[in-house]
Design a protein that fits this description.
The structure is a single chain. By secondary structure, the chain is mostly helical. It has 2 domains: about 180 residues; about 170 residues, no CATH class. It has 14 helices and no strands. Helix 4 packs antiparallel against helix 5.
């Protein structure tokens, strides 16, 4: 007879050992430092772009064959001459070829600190990875995320070199920016994974369901698309044209001949090369993440979210509104440095918070107990036979131990048992007499 199938449990059993608390704390500290340094790199990168300092060090990863700044006036003059030739070759606005040595050195140090911060990000990631690698349980739970972070860091460094060597092409600037955002989101997810390692509780759901997950992933995708159009707008200088809102060239939605240029070709080519069309797409696409955020709140309104997940979602909504306001002010004021840096910072934080919400909804950290633990499966025929066999063996061992124990009174002989039973037996009962016939009832003369 075949055994009935065992149902698949809906919960994660707590079977793996928990990582050491000290190792978990060490990885958390370095991941926090990694996250803060990533924010610093992105914000300082916005400063590099605003000030036009990206061409002040035209080589990558070295500085005229060295890792240190020039040590003589001759070295500084040679480096400035290289910058002047590159700026004249590109002929882009914001990169004046003829500047004073003091202005050039100021631009150089801005770019140099940007590269130094990027190197510190790599160092923090290496230390966090080595700390996690020393604990086998922790690495088993989170190793894949650290490997992905390393791959993104290498790709980001390569894109940085392409941006410098390629003359600050807008497409490469946008790709460089998107990679930094994805790296930041995965760093936050790695921190969440380290905190969740060893804390899976039976009874918690595996995920929040299809609708919330699809909504939050679509929100992440549209946010990255908005970041991409923002990078194109910044690289093309789109923030310096059509500095009005909500109207653009006196139209709420301008006709195609005002925002599309036939010399670039189709819509895709205009997005990559036309500053006006890139800004048009970026300014109106900014409202789509807010709409998707409202849809996400509606789909999660009936879910028992944990307190951290609710806070991630609230902060995301507040930052989305603030980002739209700052973006409008940045456009109206023709992209001043402080508003541009704030705009980049808010965008990075928004994507990081959305990544945190997506991780919590995907894993059981974001929900309270939804499904109760399933009852144990019914015993199979083999299990029942084993239980009966074990019970028989236990009974036999008990009887054998009773017979071999001298202190236990042995059973009396059969004759003594019979006599004792006869002695205590009750006497036989007498037969009941037959019932008397009833006497006639009536007057005496009837007798």
């Amino acid at each position: 007879m075949n055994a009935p199938p065992t149902p698949t449990p809906l919960v994660d059993p707590v079977s793996a050992p928990s990582p050491a608390p000290l190792a978990t704390l060490g990885v958390k500290v370095w991941l926090w430092l990694l996250i803060l340094l990533t924010v610093g790199v992105v914000v300082w990168g916005a400063v590099v772009r605003i000030t036009g300092s990206g061409l002040s060090i035209p080589d990558w990863p070295t500085i005229a064959g060295s890792l240190t700044p020039p040590k003589s006036d001759y070295g500084w003059s040679q480096l400035q001459e290289t910058y002047r030739a590159e700026a004249e070759r590109l002929g882009k606005p914001g990169f004046p070829p003829d500047i004073t040595p003091e202005a050039f050195r100021r631009m150089f140090w801005i770019e140099y600190y940007h590269r130094a911060l990027a190197a510190l990000v790599g160092l923090a990631l290496v230390i966090a990875t080595v700390t996690a690698l020393r604990n086998r349980t922790l690495w088993h739970r989170t190793g894949g995320r650290f490997i992905t972070l390393f791959a993104l860091l290498i790709a980001q460094a390569g894109l940085g070199g392409v941006v410098v060597k390629g003359g600050l092409q807008p497409l490469m600037i946008a790709a460089h920016l998107i990679t930094a955002y994805i790296f930041f989101g995965l760093a936050i997810n790695a921190l969440q994974a380290v905190g969740l390692a060893g804390k899976v509780v039976p009874g918690e759901s595996k995920s929040a369901g299809r609708k919330p997950l699809i909504t939050v992933w679509l929100l992440m995708l549209i946010t990255l698309l908005q970041v991409f159009t923002g990078g194109l707008t910044a690289g093309l200088g789109g923030a310096l044209v059509a500095n009005t809102w909500p109207f653009m060239f006196n139209f709420l939605l301008p006709p195609g001949e005002l925002i599309l240029d036939a010399k670039f070709g189709g819509i895709g080519a205009n997005l990559l090369h036309n500053a006006v069309f890139a800004q048009f797409v970026h300014r109106w696409l900014a409202f789509l993440p807010l709409v998707l955020y409202v849809a996400l709140r509606l789909t999660c309104s009936f879910l028992p979210l944990t307190k951290p997940t609710r806070w991630w979602m609230r902060l995301t909504g507040l930052l989305l509104v603030a980002q739209i306001v700052v973006g409008i002010l940045n456009l109206l004021k023709a992209a001043p440095p402080n508003l541009t840096a704030l705009h980049s910072t808010l965008g990075l934080l928004i994507f990081g918070f959305i990544s945190a919400v997506a991780y919590d909804l995907r894993h059981n950290a974001g929900l309270k107990r939804i499904f109760k633990p399933l009852p144990p499966p019914p015993p199979t025929i083999q299990d029942q036979l084993k239980q009966q066999r074990a019970a028989s063996q236990t009974q036999a061992q008990t009887v054998a131990s009773m017979g071999s124990d001298p202190s236990y009174p042995s059973a009396p002989p059969a004759s003594a048992a019979a006599s004792s039973e006869a002695a205590v037996a009750p006497p036989p009962s007498r037969p009941k007499p037959p019932p008397r016939p009833p006497e006639p009832s009536g007057p005496a003369e009837w007798k």
